[in-house]
Amino acid sequence: MNSKAYISGFIFGLMIVAIACTIWRIVRREKRAEYDERQEAIRGKGFKLAYFTAIIVLILGGCVEMLLDAAWCGLFSFAMLALWLSVCVFATYCVVRDAYFTLRSKRSLLIVIAFAGSAINLFIGIRSIAAGELMAGGVLSLHAVNLLTGACCLYLGAMMLCRSLWERRREEME
Amino acid sequence: MKNLRMKAARAGKDLSQQQLAELVGVSRQTINAIEKGEYNPTIRLCIAICRALDRTLDELFWEEAHEKTPD
After folding, report:
1. Percent helix, strand and coil across chain A, each rounded to 5?
2. Which residues of A touch B28 (CB under 8 A)?
3. The complex's ipTM?
4. What is the per-residue pLDDT across A111-168, written as a single tens digit (0 to 9) for each?
């Protein structure tokens, strides 16, 4: 698969997800996600942490490339690495402080989506490793994005699951 | 500082944290954080809690100087 086909597929996938989410909200008549004031404050701090994470990752990536005097990762893969690391920082902070789920969101559905996304991306990523497509010209190719996305979705799903189980146990104890 | 007065008022009305949370439109964890003194609610939420528990702001949230003790 060449780069243009891969990027086209990526953009097409994003569009499908965006359209599906919009239709879902229209059907359910949801105007926007509902968070209470404590959750909004925590999410604000989470966004700040994610922003600084992205900055640090971008600077470190640039420094590594300068030190090695050669590219170690494709531009798109590196952009996705910075994005996913930021998302993981944001999600970790919000899940731990109970500001990730809205007042009405169905936790089990989100956890299933995260694990399903992980399974699909890990399958594609492992297949690309088997096909020897992970590296191209000595740098991480576009196919690394699937592995990275799969790993991050797996982490997010596991974290949300642990938090939900912990929360349920705590409610039972109270 | 823990808000024991709010906890007592909630218990007095025989409400769980979840029930009070639903009455005022926040998560159970937010009510828990207020009672534990881990979160300072806005005046809007304070009023909503007071209305739900039939108490005044003074009764639930006003701290006298001698009450200000460390957690």
Report:
1. 75, 5, 20
2. 171
3. 0.81
4. 999 999 999 999 988 888 888 877 777 788 777 888 889 999 999 999 999 988 888 8
Question: d(Cα B12, Cα B19) in Å, to the nearest integer?
Answer: 13
Structure tokens, B61: 């949230």
Which of B5, B56, B47, B48 is closest to B23 using CA atoms?
B48
Q: What is the pTM of this model?
A: 0.80
Dist CA B51 CA B57 (whole Å): 9
Instruction: Give the nearest chain B residue to A170 (CA atoms).
Output: B29
CB atoms within 10 A of CB B25: 14
Q: How far apart are CA A93 and CA A117, in angstroms?
A: 21
Alpha carbons A82 and A63: distance in angstroms, whole number: 14
- Go through chain B and tell me how many residues it has: 71
Closest CB to B30: pick one of A36, A171, A174: A36
- Stated as kind and residue range, the H or E segment containing A135 is strand A135-136
